[in-house]
């Protein structure tokens, strides 16, 4: 077996077994449909995958001990394309990342623009193998440029084994969101969304899964008139080929539509009751509902998984981005499917008996708390994320000179990098974990002794290179301050540095396409210089973050440096990653930063 790089070692050894938090209540009798008639309906809660988990695709695989598997898109984040599994639809565990080795898809390192990377996947099981179709998009190139779209698929015989996932097999199509379908005559088709600014519509072609060769592409359906028909999936049921799609764009007008035909090649007849799923024009917290997939459980009941944004009618505050939600569906013989509207608290088909016997690389979704001490010999946890492929030289767990910490050697470029889009040479020395709760506290200790101007290390709420909020310790000339540290004057806070002398400062700065606060520079109180500092990001409401700092030895002295709206991070395709970084900001500094006592404490999940 090929060895994994050290920064991926945790993908095989890290894992906890914690019971999930979903509930199944005996409060109603299931309506007819499937094999569950007479059993009690279930109550469960959305999102089922909180935080950055867009464009879900799910399957039920009886051959794998009646297990459900779900995939989600990952854009420039790495490891990419997370796979979660469940035995009961309530308790979900991270079991793998399809994209877990740079050699699988080297081009991810070269993407330009933060909306690039891995777009929507489709996960399917056929012929004793798992198939994952997706598109690597270089969103900086024009839609009519064929090189913008790198359509690919991966194959695995064991989805739990990272090394089982193959290197990418490429096929040609000027579009995105590919989805495979195996017909009864043995032919295999791929259905995908054409570049909508060029020629909107759902296209289809035969594909050879050995070579990636595709036949002639034909238009099968142009949708119902909504913007950007995309996210297609084909299902065969009761003599019809059903084509599911998303329309309206991934915003407040997002919706799920469906059509059908007696022939795989069409013509497809639109459902008169379209859309079958949307929260458009509602006051629901859950907005932008769309990009769905349908699957059956072991009792024959249908379920629908989709993406949603907890943005509410105002659609201003949604830093966790597009998340995965679940709804019960009814699909009567010869009819179009019907899906329940997405809410925070759902009632649906009876779910399988609770079962937490799954093994996996990562934790259960319900176990979101972090208390990580970076012990000697431990890996970087598998739920941590980098931005594109990491430089192994940047990271070391529990180095000899500073055990029980994560050492980060600085990258020359900072989190914005060259232009907010391209990573530049060497990439960024950054690692984090997804924000998965409306209210939370994230904190970490920092030991950092910079020696050159603009050397910086700190914490960040990071959405993309052009949308992030950072609080760092940075070496700047005395007199650079824009404000005093909160609570001054206080004994030990007064600075004795001469004008121009390089001294540590706290610096908050923000990057976004929407208005952000001015950069805030606060001197580190002299009594704290040379000490271990505690840096903290918290969300005490659903509209603002608090960035705080203080001495690790005296948590009572930690002060809020700034409260800032999360609107600058409520944008685009991804969701916030909370993490740590070190940079020389373009200089030649090489001072490492040591981070320890990493904690993420979930406090509340808003669902209504």
Automatic annotation (TrEMBL):
Give one Pfam family.
GH43_C2
Beta-xylosidase C-terminal Concanavalin A-like domain residues: 373-600
On the tree of life, the source organism's domain of life is Eukaryota
- First and last residue of the signal peptide: 1-23
Q: Does the keyword tRNA-binding apply?
A: no
Q: Which SUPFAM superfamilies match?
A: Arabinanase/levansucrase/invertase (SSF75005), Concanavalin A-like lectins/glucanases (SSF49899)
Q: Does the keyword Ion transport apply?
A: no
Q: What's one GO BP annotation on this UniProt entry?
A: carbohydrate metabolic process
Please indicate which residues carry the site annotation Important for catalytic activity, responsible for pKa modulation of the active site Glu and correct orientation of both the proton donor and substrate: 177
Sorted keywords for this record are: Glycosidase, Hydrolase, Signal
Extract the GO molecular function terms from the UniProt entry.
hydrolase activity, hydrolyzing O-glycosyl compounds
Family affiliation: Belongs to the glycosyl hydrolase 43 family.
- Protein name from the UniProt record: Beta-xylosidase C-terminal Concanavalin A-like domain-containing protein
Q: Which organism is it from?
A: Pseudallescheria apiosperma (Scedosporium apiospermum)
